[in-house]
Write a structure and sequence with these properties.
Blueprint lengths: L12 E4 L5 H11 L3 E6 L13 E2 L2 E2 L2 H4 L3 E5 L5 H12 L3 E4 L5 H4 L4 H7 L4 E6 L14 H8 L19 H23 L8 E6 H6 L3 H10 L16 E5 L5 E5 L3 H10 L14 H6 L1 H13 L3 H11 L3 E3 L3 H6 L1 H5 L3 E6 L3 E6 L23 H8 L4 H9 L4
Parallel strand pairs: 1-2, 1-6, 2-5, 6-7, 7-8
Antiparallel strand pairs: 3-4, 9-10, 10-11, 12-13
Length: 404
């Protein structure tokens, strides 16, 4: 992990003072693409994510993937000396990423109006549960409750059972992607408009807003049809046929015919071209009205084939189908290997740990994993001495005072 930094964001300096998943993930994505990311953590405690499972030998296994390409320094920015050091770091940085409750940074005297005195070109990227404004701005916000607030959970599950939350931190990761996009957009705006002095700015969003942004069909449907969509275990009300199907060998696949041309290819694969002439099936809109009938034709045909047989046949006809892969399947899959979707990173105690690779891929300025996730405060001396010019004695005094 000493790869040369050829990423498109090389030269950009980011301070990450956030915790847990959403905002740190945004910083990690930017680090993957070449940004120099320094993570500031509370002395003696660090990011809460350092204690979140799953584990091996008491080692948190999320940390290697979510904190790669970052340096770590400890700094209590609530103290006077900590604030002074923080502002010096701000003066050398392009971006600050934070996810405290709205008003927290201002309470500490570190709001954007104050920080831009140290660096008027600073981009301050802020994630909170419900955003910096609105009546719920001060509520505690976490991913699973935020998913419920977004409208997503109400759509998930079976109608005869309670709604189902995602089995992992889906909202946090989607929000992280949105914030990474917003941050590079703000950087581009700052730099491309340098001559007109736009400078830095705040970029902020609530956790729930990232998934809500993806539910445009739900918003328009309720606005125009006053329909409250019921929850469903799969894609519902969009395409027919669509769903999860069992194969002859007891495995499962997901099949979706989102367009009429796709259904035409499926009908030919099933040797059921007659459906293309039937006024109950020939377009998606009429198939949706007779979806039970369509499913009673498609599901038994799928059940006649093994998973491998089915995917081979449908692939040859250009029908979108995928086996439902477990993580064990993914580790063995040749496509994941060819795409370098799983890579190894160093770990100070576990030796090597596999993590997701860098995506998207750039043809001329590829991202990379250049160094492993840091130990708490691992880069204190490097940054405080080499970047800020503090002496060894000053650093020791800061340790004694628990500022770092």
């Amino acid at each position: 992990m000493t790869k040369e930094n050829t990423g498109p964001l090389r030269g950009i300096k980011i301070l990450d003072i956030s915790t847990m998943i959403a905002a740190p993930y945004a910083a990690t994505l930017l680090g993957d693409f070449g940004a120099d990311v320094t993570k500031i953590e509370l002395p003696g405690k660090g990011d809460t994510l350092r204690t979140v499972g799953p584990y091996k030998n008491n080692e948190p296994l999320r940390w290697p993937g979510l904190a790669r390409n970052k340096k770590s320094i400890t700094l209590d920015i609530r103290t006077d000396k900590g604030k002074d050091i923080f502002k010096k770091l701000i003066s050398q940085s392009d971006v600050l990423i934070e996810n405290f409750r709205p008003g927290t940074m201002e309470k500490w005297g570190l709001g954007y109006d104050e920080l831009k005195k140290s660096n008027p070109n600073l981009i301050m990227s802020r994630i909170s549960g419900y955003g910096q404004t609105g009546p719920y701005r001060e509520r505690a916000g976490f991913g699973t409750p935020g998913t419920a607030f977004s409208g997503h959970t109400a759509l998930s599950g079976y109608t005869d059972r309670p709604p189902v939350s995602p089995p992992y931190s889906l909202l946090d990761y989607i929000t992280g992607i949105h914030m990474a996009l917003a941050t590079v957009s703000a950087l581009y705006s700052r730099d491309i408009n340098e001559d007109v002095g736009i400078g830095g700015q705040e970029v902020e969003m609530g956790l729930y807003e990232s998934i809500f942004r993806m539910l445009e069909f739900l918003v328009a449907e309720y606005d125009q049809n006053q329909k409250v969509r019921e929850r469903s275990p799969g894609l519902a009300g969009h395409s027919s046929p669509a769903g999860t199907y069992e194969t002859r060998d007891g495995k499962y696949v997901v099949l979706v015919c989102s367009t009429d041309s796709t259904f035409e290819r499926l009908a030919k694969a099933m040797k059921r071209e007659d459906m293309l002439e039937n006024d109950r099936y020939y377009t998606n809109s009429v198939r949706l009205k007779h979806d039970d009938e369509v499913q009673n034709i498609v599901a038994p045909w799928i059940k006649q084939h093994t998973q491998d047989e089915l995917t081979s046949v449908l692939d040859s006809y250009g029908v979108p189908v995928s086996p439902i892969l477990t993580i064990e399947d993914i580790f063995k899959d040749p496509h994941y290997k060819a795409r370098e979707n799983i890579v190894e990173v160093d770990h100070p105690r576990l030796g090597k740990v596999k993590v997701p690779g860098v995506v998207p891929k750039f043809s001329k300025t590829p991202g990379s994993i250049r160094h492993r996730a840091p130990e708490l405060g691992e880069h204190n001396e490097d940054i405080l001495k080499n970047s800020l010019g503090l002496s060894s004695g000053e650093i020791e005094e800061l340790k004694t005072q628990k500022v770092i």
